[in-house]
Design goal:
Elements (H helix, E strand, L loop, with lengths): L9 H11 L5 H8 L3 H13 L3 E6 L2 E6 L15 H7 L5
Antiparallel strand pairs: 1-2
Length: 93
């Protein structure tokens, strides 16, 4: 049996999904990522708390904007920025 794993965390996948579809709703992100809506909310909160996303309210919706200048957290990639990660995986706009 082959174990299912990916090279990127849910956090990275959320950033990539938001880069591709900035107005995606939580349920849409959950479907794209194959995780629960609650997990998406937890990841979004982590990313906001870490300074990787800026969150604002537009009407009743939360809007998230990627902080492309935020540095990655791991020692092996701490000199790189979120924008570098997204750019290396192919921006769509």
């Amino acid at each position: 049996m082959t174990k299912k794993w990916t090279f990127l965390s849910h956090h990275a996948h959320v950033l990539i999904a938001l880069d591709r579809q900035a107005d995606a709703k939580i349920d849409e992100l959950a479907a794209i990522l194959g995780i629960t809506s609650r997990s998406v909310v937890n990841v979004l909160n982590d990313l906001v708390d870490g300074g990787y996303l800026n969150k604002s309210k537009v009407g009743r919706r939360n809007v998230y904007v990627i902080n492309r200048d935020a540095k990655l957290r791991h020692a092996t990639s701490g000199q790189k920025k979120v924008g570098d990660l997204i750019g290396s995986l192919g921006e769509f706009h």
